[in-house]
TrEMBL record:
<dbReference type="InterPro" id="IPR001041">
    <property type="entry name" value="2Fe-2S_ferredoxin-type"/>
</dbReference>
<feature type="domain" description="FAD-binding FR-type">
    <location>
        <begin position="2"/>
        <end position="106"/>
    </location>
</feature>
<keyword id="KW-0001">2Fe-2S</keyword>
<dbReference type="GO" id="GO:0016491">
    <property type="term" value="F:oxidoreductase activity"/>
</dbReference>
<dbReference type="InterPro" id="IPR008333">
    <property type="entry name" value="Cbr1-like_FAD-bd_dom"/>
</dbReference>
<dbReference type="GO" id="GO:0050660">
    <property type="term" value="F:flavin adenine dinucleotide binding"/>
</dbReference>
<dbReference type="Pfam" id="PF00970">
    <property type="entry name" value="FAD_binding_6"/>
</dbReference>
<dbReference type="InterPro" id="IPR017938">
    <property type="entry name" value="Riboflavin_synthase-like_b-brl"/>
</dbReference>
<dbReference type="GO" id="GO:0051537">
    <property type="term" value="F:2 iron, 2 sulfur cluster binding"/>
</dbReference>
<dbReference type="GO" id="GO:0046872">
    <property type="term" value="F:metal ion binding"/>
</dbReference>
<keyword id="KW-0274">FAD</keyword>
<protein>
    <submittedName>
        <fullName>2Fe-2S iron-sulfur cluster binding domain-containing protein</fullName>
    </submittedName>
</protein>
<keyword id="KW-0411">Iron-sulfur</keyword>
<keyword id="KW-0560">Oxidoreductase</keyword>
<dbReference type="InterPro" id="IPR006058">
    <property type="entry name" value="2Fe2S_fd_BS"/>
</dbReference>
<dbReference type="Pfam" id="PF00111">
    <property type="entry name" value="Fer2"/>
</dbReference>
<dbReference type="InterPro" id="IPR036010">
    <property type="entry name" value="2Fe-2S_ferredoxin-like_sf"/>
</dbReference>
């Protein structure tokens, strides 16, 4: 299931003082494997100081480009992000998992008006989505609200300016800077007043078919709340977290006993016993089972599995819909077993 492929880095472009765009050379034999939908991400596996790291990064180019490019911002205290910005070189080889993710835009041939709220590196999947929206229908409109510290720290600024020039009557950008005051930019952060200004004033005459949100959890929560207050239905709001707030695992404190676990992955079945206080994915990996995972924080969707027998409960869930949970899907990185037996299937998702 953790199907990694060795890809060579074909280009590294400096986007800002603290971020880069990394492109990969995908051989013809893997073109189908690495085809993607706008908004999806790849997981990169790399050894740093003898430790295996897995990190998920969104694809910034549109599917029509024939390229595979991700944006990586150097995070304070980060490991791989620091290496990607300071040590990674063209010609290097990285282990890469094929694209996945549910934060997507798929053209259906009908005109669409789309708005996106992004902050910092949250722009990465939005770039792919924006370009796909604009090129897929001559009447499509895309509005981007983009928060950063300043223009200098704005990832993909030149690409955004290119879209402004190419789609003058269909692409609209509202920059929001928290540490710089500039013409045509709002000062501050993307907050309640920002959202109300955008949808009730500046773009009040546009009826949006979809709202894409990507960035830190507090921003997303604020935007979601304001959109709903303004009558936007939940099915028209799509979001992806780049970072998630820490959640206390109060559930583990109340669990006692062991669970007999059966895991299906890549058509193989594995059995072991785990403590209910453990998270399912942690127990699976401890058994050296090659299950899919990436962030281990409930932010990506790599570790989804389906419950075939028994029950499990998630500490937090910001990805699966209520319907998917009712169908038995779980994020194994967030799930504790509740029953004496639990059977999960990573293949049936």
């Amino acid at each position: 299931m953790s199907d990694f492929h060795a890809l060579q880095v074909s280009a590294i472009e400096k986007l800002t003082p603290s971020s880069v765009a990394v492109s990969f050379d995908v051989p013809e034999t893997l073109k189908d494997t690495f085809s993607f939908k706008a908004g999806q991400y790849i997981t990169i596996k790399h050894q740093v100081n003898g430790q295996e790291l897995r990190r998920a990064y969104s694809i910034s180019c549109p599917p029509s480009s024939g390229r595979l490019t991700v944006g990586i911002k150097k995070m304070p205290g980060g490991t791989f992000s620091v290496y990607a910005n300071e040590g990674l070189r063209e010609g290097a080889t990285l282990e890469v998992m094929p694209p996945e993710g549910r934060f997507i835009f798929v053209p259906d041939g009908n005109p669409k008006n789309v708005i996106a709220f992004a902050a910092g590196s949250g722009i990465t999947p939005i770039m792919s989505i924006a370009q796909t929206v604009l090129e897929s229908h001559p009447e499509n409109i895309f509005v981007l609200i983009f928060g950063n510290q300043s223009a200098t720290e704005t990832m993909y600024l030149s690409e955004i300016q290119f879209l402004e020039n190419k789609y003058t009557d269909r692409f609209f950008i509202q920059h929001v800077y928290s540490r710089a005051q500039e013409d045509n930019a709002l000062f501050g952060r993307i907050e309640r007043s920002t959202v109300n200004f955008i949808i009730k004033n500046k773009f009040k005459n546009i009826a949006f078919d979809a709202h894409y949100l990507c960035g830190p959890e507090p921003m997303i929560n604020t935007v979601v709340d304001v959109l709903k207050e303004n009558g936007v239905s939940e099915e028209k709001i799509l979001f992806e977290l780049f970072t998630s707030s820490d959640t206390e695992d109060d559930l583990a404190e109340d669990l006692e006993g062991k669970t007999q676990v059966e895991v299906i992955v890549d058509d193989e079945t594995f059995s072991f016993t785990m403590d209910k206080k453990q998270l399912v994915l942690d127990a699976v990996l401890k058994e050296d089972i090659d299950a899919p995972y990436s962030c281990q924080g409930g932010v990506c969707s790599s570790c989804i599995a389906r419950i075939k027998e028994g029950k499990a409960e998630m500490v937090k869930n910001q990805i699966l819909t209520d319907g998917e949970v009712a169908e038995g899907l779980i994020l194994t990185c967030q799930a504790h077993p509740l029953t004496s037996k639990l059977k999960i299937d990573y293949d049936d998702v």
